[in-house]
Amino acid sequence: MTRRALAAGWCLITLLAATSGAFAGCLPAKLVVAIDAGHGPKAPGATSASGVAEYHFNLRLAGQVRDALYAAGFTKAFLIDPTGLDLPPAGRAKRANAAGTALLISIHHDSAQPQFFTSETVGGTTRRFCDHFAGYSLFYSGRNRHADDSLAFARLIGRQLRREGLPFTRHHAADVPGERRPLVDDELGVYRYDGLAVLHAAASPAVLVEAGVIVNRTEEAELAGPTRQMQTARAITRAVVNWCAGQRP
């Protein structure tokens, strides 16, 4: 995608904000949206099929979500940890709470359980990958003090991701160790995961977005490209616009 096409995409987001009718629920310029780039440089999360750290994907997409929100008028959107301090999950929520955050969005990229991986050696380098699963997934915590609103916000994000034509993955509901997450919305890809500290420690509605499965070789290539990144950032921004307008599923 060219820079001109990317710029046009942001213009569409700005137009969306300007033409969405009255923002009945809030004023965009006053809504504080905290964006968490999951993990950090020292504890970078999963490793992609090509050997890239998850944190690299997370930080890039989190910045694009922030930029998209800015373009839509949400000028108080901010990155919780822009310099990579490797804050613990509860510490990220604490920082968001201190900023008076109204919505918290934690950006991640997905992996799979070890038994589903395959290894291959190319050019003397061995990589592990899992092509069985692909798609986004969304998580909220029932322990969050705004659990119902967190679920509603997750559904708004899921609706917009589906509108972009993106699939979701059901593998977190599989009856295997490390998974077994309740799939609360089997149309929009929303799971309940009470133990995620960045979600349950938040004083606002909070959603964790697994943007896609980076251990899947095909999906990793998509997630590394501008089209998929634009789709995800645009979907999240539209969900925030709808939330601000007072829309609920």
UniProtKB/TrEMBL annotation:
Catalytic activity, reaction form: Hydrolyzes the link between N-acetylmuramoyl residues and L-amino acid residues in certain cell-wall glycopeptides
InterPro entries (UniProt xref): MurNAc-LAA_cat, N-acetylmuramoyl_amidase_3
E.C. number(s) listed in UniProt: 3.5.1.28
Position of the signal peptide: 1-24
Gene Ontology BP, a term: peptidoglycan catabolic process
CDD domains registered for this protein in UniProt: MurNAc-LAA
MurNAc-LAA domain mapped to chain residues: 93-241
A GO molecular function held by the record: N-acetylmuramoyl-L-alanine amidase activity
Gene3D superfamilies found in the cross-reference section: Zn-dependent exopeptidases
Keywords carried by this UniProt record: Hydrolase, Signal
Keyword match Signal: yes
Lineage: superkingdom: Bacteria
Enzyme class of the recorded protein, top EC level: hydrolase
A cellular component term, taken from the record's GO annotations: outer membrane-bounded periplasmic space
Alphabetical list of PANTHER family matching this protein: N-ACETYLMURAMOYL-L-ALANINE AMIDASE, N-ACETYLMURAMOYL-L-ALANINE AMIDASE AMIC
Descriptive protein name: N-acetylmuramoyl-L-alanine amidase
Source organism of this protein record: Solidesulfovibrio aerotolerans
